[in-house]
Design brief:
This protein is of the alpha+beta class and 270 residues long. Among the domains are: 93-149, 2-Layer Sandwich (Alpha-Beta Plaits), CATH 3.30.70; 168-248, Methane Monooxygenase Hydroxylase, Chain G, domain 1 (Up-down Bundle). The chain is 53% helix and 13% strand. It has ten helices and seven strands. It has helices at residues 3-15, 24-31, 38-50, 69-82, 105-113, 132-140, 158-165, 168-187, 195-210, 229-262, and strands spanning 21-23, 54-59, 62-67, 94-99, 117-120, 123-126, 144-149. The chain has a four-stranded antiparallel sheet with strand order 5-6-4-7. A hairpin with a 2-residue loop joins strand 2 and strand 3 (62-67). The protein is globular, with a radius of gyration of 21 Å.
């Protein structure tokens, strides 16, 4: 697990609900159970500051970092997709984006994160609009046009569009592998396990689940194949994320309190 990715998970799942800020000492302590060393935390924090995701600030306990508005919006959007809250029903229309020129790998990943699939190098489609796509394409310097599209009588069915834009077989296998790999991690945690162990197991679970934000466009049920593995995987995730949450929260609260009492710990302010 990379330190930068873990920091996004930490802020999104635990620190955002607690004001989106934390002292450096807490960041070190909260990433330690994941095997991430203080120097890696420092490098990742500095990089996120340069990229506009974190803002340095002085807390009572010493140096700390606050989410920027851009980061807070991104994490709130990601959280809504991870926990599938506020999801609207599908109206039968796709958001179709036609690009003037193909985008590079980095911007293609950003489009995938927003739920868009590629029909060809210059045509991307999503089952619902994502407002951030305009910002992504403007930052990429790519001319584009957007359309709200639906099928007309006699045209190929929506399943043809879906199969061209997304490899559902591959995504389905990834969901099955997710459950197979995470089951021994989370079921090993029981009432006798420490809060730290529960926190580490839940962190790994959420981190693995978050990867589907870049792979699964979260298609409406009407566009999914029968016995879609993503549904049973979501049930598995919800069950264990909720079961481990109280112990994980206790570990986070103790770590934040200890960092506040201890002041500057782990490394100095970048």
């Amino acid at each position: 697990m990379q330190a930068r990715s873990a920091l996004f998970d930490l802020y999104g799942d635990y620190l955002r609900p607690r004001g989106g800020r934390a002292p450096v000492a807490a960041l070190v302590k909260l990433l330690a159970p994941l095997g991430i060393a203080p120097p890696a935390v420092r490098t990742a924090v500095s990089r996120m500051v340069r990229q506009g995701w974190l803002h340095p600030l002085r807390l009572v306990s010493g140096p700390g970092y606050l989410l920027t508005p851009k980061a807070a919006r991104r994490l709130d959007e990601a959280s809504a997709r991870i926990y599938r809250t506020g999801r609207a029903s599908w109206d039968g229309r796709f958001d179709l984006v036609l690009l003037g020129t193909p985008v590079g790998r980095r911007d293609a990943q950003r489009l995938s994160f927003l739920g868009y699939g590629m029909l060809d190098e210059r045509s991307w489609v999503a089952p619902r609009q994502a407002d951030e796509i305009d910002t992504v394409l403007l930052e990429a310097g790519v001319a584009y046009e957007r359309f709200s599209a639906s099928h007309t009588a006699g045209s190929p069915g929506v399943t043809d569009v879906v199969s061209r834009a997304w490899n559902l077989d591959e995504i389905g296998r990834a969901y099955e592998e997710f459950v197979d790999s995470q089951r021994p991690v989370v079921t090993a945690i029981n009432a006798r396990s420490s809060d730290e162990a529960a926190y580490a197991a839940r962190f790994q679970l959420v981190h693995a689940w978050r990867s589907f934000l870049f792979r699964d466009p979260q298609l409406p049920t009407s566009l999914l194949p029968p016995r879609w593995p993503g549904l049973s995987a979501a049930t598995f995730f919800d069950k264990h994320a909720a079961r481990l949450r109280p112990a994980a929260d206790r570990f986070v609260e103790r770590s934040l309190a200890a960092a506040t009492r201890g002041g500057r710990v782990g490394f100095s302010e970048p």
